[in-house]
Amino acid sequence: MLLILLSIITSYNKNTPSQKLLDFRKQKDHYFRTSPDSPIANKENFKGLIYFEPTSDFKVKANLTLLNDTLPFFLSKNDARKSKYVRYAIATFMLNNQQYNLTLLKLEGKIDNNVLFIPFSDKTNGGETYEGGRYLDVRLKNENSIVLDFNLAYNPYCAYNYKYSCPIPPRENVLSISIEAGEKKYPHEE
């Protein structure tokens, strides 16, 4: 009986969204609805963003391999502009018993050196999620590992408004799996 109860509790906790994540999503909707810096042009009709249900299945620990490549490279944007980034590390992680890698980037000259940028694309792009890929921002706490919480994956601003210039995920950050976590396609994108 005790084993069954522990199994139910473990299963429930595994799939229960954290209040912190739900509060973050509410705050983002409020910001998009009220801020003058919001990418939403028609705020009066903004009904909020749509997300996959939160799941711990897409919150993974990744091992980091720091890169000595300090030479900046140009990352293309959706409007043919380019931004300079530095490849900081490779994050290696497991999903569905398969190993994947993502390159963590730093914007050249960025003030906060502990925040890394991960533009990525996966098999949901163009269907359930924005066709141009999504992003993750992660805070570096140590140089050996990092937690990638795809529940926090978000759309670039150009998904909401064509006036924005957004980095396109580099080829090395194209995942051959569906990341069914985080933000979905903006409902007014059609």
Structure overview:
The protein has 190 residues and is of the alpha+beta class. The chain has helices at 2-15, 19-34; strands spanning 59-66, 73-76, 82-95, 98-107, 115-120, 134-139, 145-149. Strands 1, 2, 3, 4 and 7 form a five-stranded antiparallel β-sheet that branches.
Shape: globular
Mean residue pLDDT: 87
Main pleated-sheet profile: 5 strands, antiparallel
Q: What string, H for helix and E for strand, traces the elements in order?
A: HHEEEEEEE
User: What does the radius of gyration come to?
Assistant: 18 Å
Sequence stretches where pLDDT stays below 50 over 5 or more residues? 1-15
| Secondary-structure class | alpha+beta
| Count of the separate structural domains | 1
Number of strands: 7
Overall helicity:
10-25%
How much strand content do the residues show? 25-35%
The number of helical elements comes to 2
Write the layout of secondary structure elements.
Layout: H1 2-15, H2 19-34, E1 59-66, E2 73-76, E3 82-95, E4 98-107, E5 115-120, E6 134-139, E7 145-149
Antiparallel strand pairs: 1-3, 1-7, 2-3, 3-4, 5-6
